[in-house]
Q: What sequence folds into this?
């Protein structure tokens, strides 16, 4: 098996390669003067089982283009099988038509990756599980929950934990984490706007008084969802609120918003390369999912079970 990295998250690609005790394949992924992406693979890959590690995070379109062009280069170099390893799958939130005459960009991106020549996809905490069905090639969706649960249990031994979903859409994800935390109770933040023009009201379903709340979500982008939910939980009497989020998109002033929020701590994974501001924040901690992704890659290469990683 061979591992090739795009430029989106080289530290993660190196950590995965370290876990697998393999070198990264010698390749250059660079730009021409006009910013076109150019890829050159400096090793023979004919007949190889190749994994391309590339998150389609910011700058999303550049990173997506790198993934497509690396895949095309591998296909034309006769790689036996190409797996697109996407720790973060950008465009995933555009998975349906919210309004008339809008695109389903997640499906378009899935088509692009398949057309470029990928034979498989390996992703982590897809925004919606159904996105697997947008690909007509085998797609594994890994979960960061076991890594998060181990960290939560190590830090909150006997605490009165309560798992909280910051919106109604995240209940399945929250329930899965609660199960791993010795069946901790569940609460839900229900955001409602009764009439257009009125401000949103946060209702908490569940009694969070005195509880150590663990909020879970797939993405933190602007930080609005999470910081507002954290404030609502503290107002309802929670002892503390810590958030565990798979993908730290953290656009714009998100790090500042988190720093000034009611959150005790934000824990994200390294699916997206952290910015300096994220790395420097004493309110944000990063858990590595390199071992999880590396182990899944090993199992794909060995043709053994990936789902048993989550038993
Ligand atoms: C939405 O469905 C997602 O699960 C996240 O809750 C959302 O993307 C977070 O975005 P923001 O941080 O901008 O509120």
A:
């Amino acid at each position: 098996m061979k591992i090739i990295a795009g430029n989106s998250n080289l530290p993660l690609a190196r950590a995965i390669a370290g876990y697998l005790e393999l070198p990264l394949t010698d390749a250059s992924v660079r730009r021409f003067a006009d910013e076109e992406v150019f890829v050159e693979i400096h090793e023979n890959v004919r007949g190889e089982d190749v994994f391309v590690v590339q998150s389609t995070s910011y700058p999303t379109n550049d990173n997506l283009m790198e993934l497509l062009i690396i895949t095309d280069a591998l296909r034309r170099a006769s790689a036996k099988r190409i797996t697109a390893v996407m720790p973060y799958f950008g465009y995933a939130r555009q998975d349906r038509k919210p309004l008339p005459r809008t695109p389903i960009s997640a499906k378009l991106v899935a088509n692009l990756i398949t057309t470029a020549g990928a034979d498989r996809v390996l992703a982590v905490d897809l925004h919606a599980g159904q996105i697997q069905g947008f690909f007509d090639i085998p797609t594994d969706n890994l979960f960061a929950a076991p890594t998060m649960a181990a960290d939560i249990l190590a830090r909150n031994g006997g605490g009165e934990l309560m798992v909280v979903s910051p919106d109604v859409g995240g209940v399945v994800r929250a329930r899965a984490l609660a199960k791993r935390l010795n069946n901790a109770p569940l609460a839900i933040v229900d955001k409602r706007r009764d009439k257009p023009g009125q401000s949103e009201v946060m209702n908490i379903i569940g009694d969070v008084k005195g509880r150590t709340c663990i909020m879970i979500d797939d993405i933190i982008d602007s930080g609005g969802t999470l910081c507002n939910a954290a404030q609502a939980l503290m107002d309802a009497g929670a002892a503390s609120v810590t958030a565990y989020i798979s993908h730290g998109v953290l656009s714009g002033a998100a790090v500042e918003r988190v720093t000034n929020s009611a959150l005790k701590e934000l824990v994200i994974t390294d699916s997206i390369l952290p910015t300096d501001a994220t790395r420097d924040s004493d309110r944000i901690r990063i858990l590595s999912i390199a071992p999880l992704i590396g182990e899944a890659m090993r199992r794909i290469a060995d043709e053994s079970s990936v789902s048993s990683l989550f038993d």
